[in-house]
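W.,

You were right to be curious about this one. When I first looked at the sequence I had no strong expectations either way, so I just let the prediction run and decided to look at it fresh. Below is the sequence, 614 residues in total, followed by the output.
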Amino acid sequence: MVFSSVVAVASFLAPGHLPPPDSLALHREARSAQERFERTRVRHAPISWWSGSGPCDERVGRFCLRFGRESEEEEEDRPSWIPPPDAPEVLAARDDLLGTLEDIARQIPGDGWVAGQRVAYLTEVGRWEEALAAASACRGDDGWCRGLEGIALHGLGRTLEAEQAFQVLLDSLEPEEREEWEDPGVLGGVDWRRHLARLDRDDRTREENRIWHLSDPLFLLEGNPLWTEHLSRRVLAMTRETARNGHAMRWGRDMTELLVRYGPVVAYERTREPLSYVGPPLVVGRYDPVPRNLLPSFGAMVDPAESEARDWLTHQRRTISRHAPSLARRIHGMDAQITRLQEGDALIVRVDWALTDPPTSVEGDAILANGRGALPEDGSPDETPRFPPDSLLAHLFLVDVETLERFEVEARLRDGRTRGAAVIQVPPGRYLLSMEGLDPEARRAWRHRAGVERGVAHRGVVTLSDLLLMESPEEAPSDKEVPVRDAGLARALSSLTVPAGPVEVLWEVYGLDGSEGELRFELKVEREGRSLLRRLGEAVRLLGGQDPLEVGWREGVPRDEVGGRAPLRRSMVVDLSSLPPGEYELTLSATPPGRTAVTSGRRLTVSGGEGPSR
């Protein structure tokens, strides 16, 4: 959980945009009301147990950031801190402020500052429809008013309309300011900034567009809610620059950076000041605990086709930035087995997936601050498991990392709609795969992202498919009849974490071009994570080690499968019962007659228990 303060730079109230002289008194009244509210907010803020003298996880200008106890290894749905309800005095003061701003805005609709404050304070408490009406009533600079509309439209989940509104504002900005707004480097950290700085203007524009496109948190949603949330924060920062803030400090670039990276502060706390202290109250600002890291690692963004699922994790303790799409406030991980197959010159991608355990803590708006939600009357979280309803949407996407062309297919659901499979056919190439599930009713989503690539198949070159793990059949495997290209194959495992027990492994061989003879296969399961020194010790018998599971055999290639385009399909049941829990590498090698061996591998985790997990 991040806590500290916030930021922005504004140009909408430059000298040329000041209200006419006969409206200055109303403008000053609005400013006085806004300052009065912020003083009241801090005066009635709870006392913080944080000390200003403690260590910082990160420093941004004048501010010290500290993160909460969230674990990077274990996803927790219960945040380490939940925003408390505002004090009654603060609730009353906010209502007074909103009433004053509404009255003044009606009299001077062309005052951009007043319109901005109305929208900012309405969105603070989740009154999005009223915020949209307030923005629509703005009669000031068209770009600025459309930007305010964009904030409300984004909050309502109307992402495409928000993009259109923000585009009007972007078109009204000076080139340098627009470049700053469109720069994703502030969200990705030093590596991203250095990477973009090395590019010329045209290449940088293309790279920024690619980053924003591939960082779209959910391709299932229309538009890009990460982009509209980023622009919403930019506009909100402008409303804060010339207004009083909870820290009673002059607004600066450090505060803008924090707001753009983490969103607005949702609660303030007062620190215990020493008796000798003289000055404004020392205040701690806390951020919304729901948003998570939605951006990939730097390496994954440079080459998404080489990325792994861990590069796209959303739940991390220390992150450069955090976001939460309004239509999917939580994005959870998803178990998945990705299998690449071949069909002539085309690439077939099969994904067998399963939703992670549904959360059993307060969901969605229930943990938001400032009137947008509250705990039950007894103050305890709702422990009722929330399973996906019949409205669960699940789609598989493949995005070409060079052209950004997107391929999509709907997944087939089963097992109470918590598991399923999807199969898609695309041209050979380099892709970002995104398996996504969305529960719009509970505003929760799941996703599994990773890179996928496959070159063009060359005639006469023997290759292997990925290894497909399946439940062991009760009878002998019938590999030729397994519908691996059909999402209805129910025996395929949805996770690469399997309890010790029998597992069926299926694969295909491509490129057998008419040469007759024997194929030599070798299937091996070895423990991962052994150091080179330990491997050498085991090789000379100085150190004890776990003997790998290994089997080899030869077989003739059937005449009806030689020279044809149909793959040679084989499968084998492997018993993992003797293996202790841990990480393993499952490797298959195939040696065609007179040629070098080709290999295919699959990393898996063996857990305790019996029988494979579906």
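Here's what jumped out at me. Residues 1-17, 71-76, 359-385, 537-545 have pLDDT under 50 and may be disordered. And, maybe more interesting for your project: The CA atoms of residues 474 and 502 lie 10 Å apart.

Coffee later to discuss?

I.
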